[in-house]
Amino acid sequence: MLLRVKRETGGFDRATLEPADEADLIARCRADERGAHDEFYHRFRRQVAGNLYRVLGDRTDLDDLVQEVFVIAFRGLEKFRGDARLSTWLYRVCVNVALGRIRTRKRRPNAIGMDDLDSAAIDPSMTERPEQPDRALERRQDQARVYQALEQLAPKKRIVLYLHEIEGLDLKEIAYLVDSNPVTVRTRLFYARREFYRLIAGAQPDAAGGAEASGAPAARCEAGGGRMSRHIKPHRWADALAGRVDASERAAMKLHAASCASCALARDRVGRASDTFPTIREQAGPELPWDSVRARVHWSVSKERREKQAAGAPRRVPVLAWAAVATLAAGGLAAITGTGMPSASAPVVSGVSPPIAPPIAPPVGPPLAPLATPPKALAGLVNRVARGELMIDGVRPTDLFRHRIVAGTVIATGEGRIDVQFGDASAFALGPNSTLDVRRFDTELIELAVVGTIDIEVAPRAVGQRFIVIAGEHAIEVRGTQFRVSHQASGTAVACRHGLVAVHDAAQGTALVGAARRVQVATGAAISTARVEPLTVDELTALAEATPMTLPLWNPETLIASSAPLEIGAVGARDVRVDGIELGLAPLQVRVMPGRHTVEATDSAGRYRRAGWVDVAAPSAGVPPARLEVPAEVSAGAGVRERRRQLLAGIDQARLARCTRSIAKAGLTNTFVHVELSVDASGAVGFLNVIDTDLPSSTASCVREVLADVRFKAGAAATWREKLDL
To answer: Is there a cis peptide before residue 354, judged by omega within 30 degrees of 0?
Structure first.
């Protein structure tokens, strides 16, 4: 039979972890818990080693690569937004590390030895024939040939071919893993398959001692019994074995191979290579010195943390010196007065009794308590304002992006929202028609009272520091986490994306809301009666999209002096993004750095299109913010419909078919070209641009020339975009 067993897709290792447990593990890793780092490493270490081993084909420096993957992962967890499963994101890191190793190591024709490959027996159900005593050696030889062919491909081609042919992933999955788009991946895969199978079919000699099979498509067959006059290209045999060729063509290929020794040999070699794919996909990574790798990972991560702390140490010396002097002064004062300094009790939260944190017990013994350092006041800065009216302390501020949010500030929103950052990775976003009272805002306690909706992302804080949100009769206290509080007259709802929040009420009841969980309690009801329920996928997505905007290298003074607002206007509500960062619905204002910025807006189909670019100058007093007005989307009126009809009717189909004939014969079908046209009232073409295609450049140029020769009649002027399936 020509048709092989269909491969299962998604063969890479996936460590099973529930979404809630996954979010909790990430939160604990972000909080620098050593136990969480160890759990992360032990849970995913075999997955990482196996993925790297299969992509590269050998175990050279594999322990170093595993270490590199985990160091990168621990650095990147702070920015991990949950757009994919943690295992998939970690596989993406593995792919990038493997790609870097492929690019840097020297080309070695015999780099992949058979001793490097797994010699375990293969499951007979994976192939059409049972395992024979001599099959193990033959299978290892076939695997070595597969990796030898992979070694000869360009790194980007090798990665996409491995992920598609061996792992069985689709184009969208591959595009995510290699950080590209499906169109590029598809074109890259087409050329990679053609080159790889040509190497498989012609790189090794015949087992009987004959000449090498030729992969050249131009050679003609000597035998006359077949229906085809040219050799069948090796990648078409792979398509036939995978079931991607219809029955009539498959029968013709089989008949041709019966009379063409070269094509029969190419078919057999491609078939043997395809038979090894399930074996490669199921191989586990080799055993490594796991404890040694873990120790090196921990040392690398800890070393970076110590260096960051050391960099900030000189600025803390005066504070520490002042604290030492204050301690001595406190001791002297206690000796003179005979009394101890009062301890700092936990602040009383309105509507909550008793306090959430137990009071500090009075000192026992001689009154020698040190003088406590007064808490440092915090200040927040506005990063984004989206649509609608906004008032701060009862007025509409004219210098919103220079205004500091401090204790005592009251913020009220209309139909829009406001994002305020107050730490390296700490910020809140006040939703529409909401009010926020910043009751206390310092390094000891942050207390926010909200009516409406607020999304909060809080970085892990110092020991003893507290963060409380007051929502009517309920208080929500958290550590490092991301969550949402919605408080209305009817009740309070709390949803947690990652981390853990504790919801208290006046009756001393408590509900713990973990990652991917939510709780809703009606006004007047006891929190102890509320049920904590899991969030749906849509609710988790909404929480992720509502993440408050934060800027790197947080420093309020530096940001005020070096950043400036950018105002983006739009007719109607349209999603926009600046420099590739999605910002939500316009009109809005956002804090950016001086320079040129590209703005994109969505069209009626939800696709981002370039709206223009804008130069933002350095901030200056009295200078209005830079502004870009997103042009209204031109509707497809009668003029556009008529011009589209003229375009489609005027295309020379025979000439267009000649443009794509060569790639169609090579197996690249169902292609497209996306063009942008402008036709004036006289029928002259103002411009014709190819904005997207999956065609090779030469073929795309040929198609554009065909379209450029279309003639239009006099009529309405029109500008539109057209996607043509070829």
So the answer is: yes
Q: What is the amino acid identity at position 237?
A: W
CA-based nearest residue to 682, from 718, 720, 640: 718
pLDDT tens by residue, 582-632: 888 888 899 998 888 888 888 776 777 788 888 888 887 777 888 888 877
Q: Would you give the DSSP letter of residue 32?
A: T
Distance CA 161, CA 167 (A): 9
DSSP string covering 57-79 = SS-TTHHHHHHHHHHHHHHHGGG
Element (H, E) at 96: helix 86-104
Query: Measuring CA to CA, how many Å separate 268 from each of 1, 176, 202, 224?
Result: 12, 34, 11, 21
- pLDDT for res 408: 93
Instruction: Quote the DSSP letter at residue 482.
Output: E
Parallel, antiparallel, or unpaired: how do β-strands 435-441 and 410-413 relate?
antiparallel
Contact between 678 and 644 (Cβ < 8 Å): no
- Closest alpha carbon to 626 in 579, 564, 582: 564
At 582 the three-state DSSP class reads strand
User: Taking Cα atoms as reference points, which of 147, 154, 166 lies closest to residue 191?
Assistant: 154
Euclidean distance between the first and final Cα of the chain, in Å?
33
For the segment 30-37, the average pLDDT, to the nearest whole number, is: 78
CA 346, CA 174: separation in Å to the nearest integer? Answer: 52
Q: Tell me the C-alpha distance between 52 and 71, whole Å.
A: 15
What would the pLDDT profile of 75-100 be if each residue is shown by its tens digit?
888 778 777 788 888 888 999 888 88
Average pLDDT, the chain: 77
Amino acid 68 reads E
